[in-house]
Amino acid sequence: MVDKEEVRPQHNSHHFLLVAYGVQSHINPGRVLAHRLTRLGIDGSVLATLSIPVASYHRMFPDATMAETATDGIISYIPCSDGVDDGSWPKDANDRALRRRASSENLSAIVARFADRGQPVTCIICTMIFLPVLDVAREHNIPVAIYWIQPATLLAINYHYFHGYNELITSHATDPTYKVCLPGLSCPLQIGNFPSFLIDMSGSEMSKAIIELSQELFKYIDQLRPKVLLNTFDELEANVIREMKKHFDVFTVGPMVGSSTEARIHLFKHDNVDKKRYMEWLQAHPEKSVVYVSFGSVTKNSKRQMDEIIGGLRQCRRPYLLVVRKDGLEDDDENNHNLEDTQSQLGMVVEWCDQLEVLSHSAVGCFVSHCGWNSTIEAVVSGVPVIGVPNMLDQLTNIYLIEEEWGIGIKGERNNDGVVTGTELARCIELVMGESPKAMAIRERSKALKEIAQASVNAGGSAEKKLRDFIKTIQVNDTFCMDGIMSVNKAIAEN
Question: From which domain of life does this come (predicted)?
């Protein structure tokens, strides 16, 4: 239950405003970070507010108004308008410019209101790339920190792309087996494992937008060297983190997944009746016997792909929990998938679930995933082997890390039509859940990484220490001095 916040003037040493995109993969790690920041200020010296787009805010707090700030008793939540407020993505460059201007104006108003209340924002943190934050920071002279909610390897790839490697990468974009050596990476990376927007030659609007946003972000980073918070831990990506510390003030504060007992934000239908049903179903199965299948909050699957997945699950004859969002089906007629027909003694189908709690259940033996970073890091924390079915963005790099760098899973290979067949899925499931030496090695490595990850987030662990170090470095006007602002504004004007 989240209540309307009673606004009182406070004299906190720090007030962090976290700005997140309106999708679960940004909101949940943003919320966990805000909670951890606040809890470090046990004397009330740290205040955190999570700002999210209007559409997502209304899904979380349907009874709240735009003028209200909600609270969960630990942090506050405040809506920010992009001028459209329907939850859609910008259509083109003009749309992006209009929304940026509206978002900047509304964020600026939020910062001003907090100052008037006696709760001035002392640092703005944005998830990944949210350029209106840079505009507002310049206007109000507030330090900025970047919350990188993908692996450090993705930060390195993006950084080097914009620092001398773009021509090499784009000139080989159509050759997925071509290998590129990047500083900090332990092995050359095949083009097919690069994030999709860097190797997309189709001219898609999404790829162009991400490239433009990233280019401005790294120009800003080069000029002002803001703090960068990484949702990873040192032991997971040691070499690349060491390399990135040459270019950024890096704080490895992950894994930012909370605990399986903490309440989580669900932007999709999820009630206690559903949860009771699937948790009781899991409880009825032996340890490490269930195949959990979920492709996240963004990925959509075609009818053919979903039919192949269902066929593969039936073929391997192991119990499975399959998550299928109704808006996650590409075909207009969702009934074509015959999802109800998959309900049998072996399987259960749900529209949504509390993923971290499911992964933490002893009955789960492997995770068939799209390999978004949140899902990946939740699998690491839970010690569950992964079968990767990546589609786009960072997922292509994450499955490389899972399979080649960490040895905690395998990739499901697509056929010439871009489909992971049922036969291929069943092969992967048997390989991961069987008794072969490779299967046992994957499970042992998953268990070992789980122990390291848990040590990192325990009280007094490395994540807490790095977060305390970050807080100590943030001082008003420390990293965003007027000279720096003037130099950035001049650079932007010249370009």
Answer: Eukaryota
